[in-house]
Protein: ADP-dependent (S)-NAD(P)H-hydrate dehydratase
Amino acid sequence: MEKLTDQILKEVITPRPENSFKGTFGKVTLVGGNRNFGGAIIMASMAAVCAGAGLVTTATDESNSSALHSQLPEAMFADFTNSEQVASLIHAATSVVVGPGLGDDEISLQILKNVFANTSDQQNVIIDGSAITLMAREGIDQPLGNIIYTPHEMEWQRLSGIKIGEQTAEKNKAVQEKLGATVVLKKHHTEIYTNDQIYQLPIGTPAQAVGGMGDTLAGMVGGFTAEFNDKADKAVLAAVYAHSAIAEKIAESQYIVLPHQISRALPTFMKKMEKLDDDHHIGFLN
Amino acid sequence: MEKLTDQILKEVITPRPENSFKGTFGKVTLVGGNRNFGGAIIMASMAAVCAGAGLVTTATDESNSSALHSQLPEAMFADFTNSEQVASLIHAATSVVVGPGLGDDEISLQILKNVFANTSDQQNVIIDGSAITLMAREGIDQPLGNIIYTPHEMEWQRLSGIKIGEQTAEKNKAVQEKLGATVVLKKHHTEIYTNDQIYQLPIGTPAQAVGGMGDTLAGMVGGFTAEFNDKADKAVLAAVYAHSAIAEKIAESQYIVLPHQISRALPTFMKKMEKLDDDHHIGFLN
Amino acid sequence: MEKLTDQILKEVITPRPENSFKGTFGKVTLVGGNRNFGGAIIMASMAAVCAGAGLVTTATDESNSSALHSQLPEAMFADFTNSEQVASLIHAATSVVVGPGLGDDEISLQILKNVFANTSDQQNVIIDGSAITLMAREGIDQPLGNIIYTPHEMEWQRLSGIKIGEQTAEKNKAVQEKLGATVVLKKHHTEIYTNDQIYQLPIGTPAQAVGGMGDTLAGMVGGFTAEFNDKADKAVLAAVYAHSAIAEKIAESQYIVLPHQISRALPTFMKKMEKLDDDHHIGFLN
Amino acid sequence: MEKLTDQILKEVITPRPENSFKGTFGKVTLVGGNRNFGGAIIMASMAAVCAGAGLVTTATDESNSSALHSQLPEAMFADFTNSEQVASLIHAATSVVVGPGLGDDEISLQILKNVFANTSDQQNVIIDGSAITLMAREGIDQPLGNIIYTPHEMEWQRLSGIKIGEQTAEKNKAVQEKLGATVVLKKHHTEIYTNDQIYQLPIGTPAQAVGGMGDTLAGMVGGFTAEFNDKADKAVLAAVYAHSAIAEKIAESQYIVLPHQISRALPTFMKKMEKLDDDHHIGFLN
Structure:
């Protein structure tokens, strides 16, 4: 198992080309947020916007559109029950994020199936939260795309069939290989299983143990893979690392970290990373 | 009567265990906020989130869901008239907060009865505002749970039958003992009646005399008892103390303190408390 | 004509009594904000809350409740077409503010009549914006109460019958005397006509020439008269002075002042005033 | 082609006259923001308000009114399908901004036609985004007014018929002359085609490549032309320059710039410009 370092940030977060426009940095379509869990998809969307994706659209329950725009006028809105519009937004996306606050009822299921029916091999598809639970419960096939799962241990148990106490690196890797997908297993010292390697995140803080932290991570993975699509695999690792590096910094002066604070800190954090030369590590920048 | 000191903060707000997740810090379900008083339950929910509870759900009138998520995407929403969903959220909670902005009409009453029918002895149940008024007016029995009342003097008169001018420590304690509950009697120098002891809060400022201050306190008690559930009795005292300690600090530069400012200051304040060693008191940290 | 000085702030903004509660600082009921002009009543309400009124209720179009609570959870909401509820809120108020964003159609008129039918001599009644226009147009009698009008010059023309070019101090005073009300005539160097005296505001900045500035002033007058009800006449003067004093300070670094910034600056500004001793003027505090 | 310099800011952003009121600084009516793209018109409106226009009204889908007022109580709301009300708001405007988030369906088209039917030669009319696309697709005639188009290259292709790869200064100028309008062609080093001259913007940063950046520019052009209406042509240039100058400053410490940050920075930025004397350039002020 290879330990991630801040080196991954330097490899991924490089200066933007001078002659670029919003299309250069990809489109993210996020799908989730039922009537009860609207905050989850708002937090994920905020992460995608603040990470620097070119265009972000949030397909969610219509009761959430007002809060979405109050928090984040930069995101566009779609009604997630409008299957035609959602299909078209999926087709247009560089990265799709499905699951945050989606819920697990019959409507959630139909929405998930619609998303999965419309992805393609050219896209990054981040599958999070209740989308994972629904897949496992309903026996839904993995969709087309560069698939990235972001389960916590219980969700991984449901998807992989490996019980929480028995989730060894070896067993996890075996399932990952069958899936042919990247698995970001969220836990104390999160593990990332890719086709090539197993990575471990050596940083993080218990101040992150707050509802919405995972939604924010899913949105960051969506944002990073869209923006840095030519190095999408590294972008996943960078998103995971940045999420905890920012949290650690905030936790120096806070007992807990509110998830939206990580997103709001992204533009400044990423600028510092962009400026890092090889002799200077993040620790020096505080 | 024992005077509370900042010692209570040091006893309660200790470093989080390294290997923890959001489940470690409990779930809070808050019930309140009718069409007119939505701000009350939003302020209480903000306090619970910022105090560091693991998961926070707000059951309120549906007209408040948009403002809730605009202020606080970290909280989940439920329609407080959906009695089945509310029952299930009560069952799942470490701490229940009922009352802020609940109102006192027939719908409020049905909601309160539903909450009370679903609590258990393993839970902290904070009863605030109109929930106290309704109990007194309708003769509703105290529910199961570790019960914490947070009345102001008029609400205490309604619940205890002791008129405001006659609320002596002795009389209050006698009623508290009959109730077998903790009573946080909000007044100039708030008093806390527990099974063991009577505490007095020696701090506080008239800058706190602003609508919503009590809702914020109820939410903090909910958050602290969920997060520090293994020392729930002390957590009540710590919440009361922290609420006024933060207000005093803000009031050094403000004529009044807006309740939401106390909540937003919690993560930083709690970090300072966590770092305090025995030789240093809060005063030194300003 | 007497020039107002910062002395008025020292006379009005004195330290709060130690043993006080939110009832000590009065209740403000604001009525206004139709579907189109919701921002006006939100800005007025924010001013009343930030000025330090004990309890603030905003009676407005129901389409505004969500934005009200997103901006200001400290305010309570009422539907301004619910005449019974509005009547009851008027009865309970120390100060009533009617007019910001009320509009001038048939519904606005019915709401205004309902407000006027329910005020009493014991209350401060601030009449602003379209409420003044409606009174003049419909020939509505002045209601009971300590009446304070806050017209700009065109609204004053409508109410007084004096054309803008002819609004001399003498003529204005004569109408004021007939009305028996305080008139805050908003203009370059605002004039305040009271039963005893004519005051002129010597401060202010063109950076205040922004929509919503008058709504904020009306809310501040409502907040100050409720909070400092025992010196309500001086409270009007203090509100007018503070409004421009804060704006001048903000305008040192901004080309324009957004009205909500004045409200948000109130708690800090008022604290500085409270601390002023007689030898120090505001200018020294920057 | 003439390079724009910060000189244009000094010429346009001069001290406000002492005796001015909100009417002095013009009225802006913005039309756009369907159910899906509400954020676009909110961002444009925020730019117009923060730029210092006297009164700002936002005609948009009614689902956006709540988020509009949550973000910006200073703006007034109108339902953009209420053609009579929109017509009246267009008549009253100094500057009209149409297009941000308007969409391109049948309803969008009817709204656009209503706007175009009601402008006059005395007004600045900023035509942006889908309004340009609709004009080209439906063959709609240019309306009356001082017309300012703000297309990106694809929108310009649709309007001018010149393909993106072939958009030379000469060809663009020829079409501009036929239109008799100002064209702000948004691209790497934005070009502005006026009746007299072609200007090039030498500043800007890839950190601006974020959705909503153009909506913000359209709103700024609306705000500047209303506020500085007596020098409206220069006001367009100043808005374009200020938009990128602020972005460059923010981008010194951020990897990307969120569009709303530019608007929020306007009051402070414009104050600095107002204070600049001829020997000092913007660079000195950082």
About this structure: Strands of chain C lie at 2-3, 27-31, 55-60, 76-79, 95-98, 124-128, 146-150, 182-185, 191-193, 198-200. Chain C has a mean pLDDT of 95. DSSP finds eleven helices and ten strands in chain C. The interface with chain B takes residues 13, 15-22, 24-25, 49-50, 52, 54-56, 62, 65-70, 72-79, 266-271, 273-274 of chain C (CB under 8 Å).
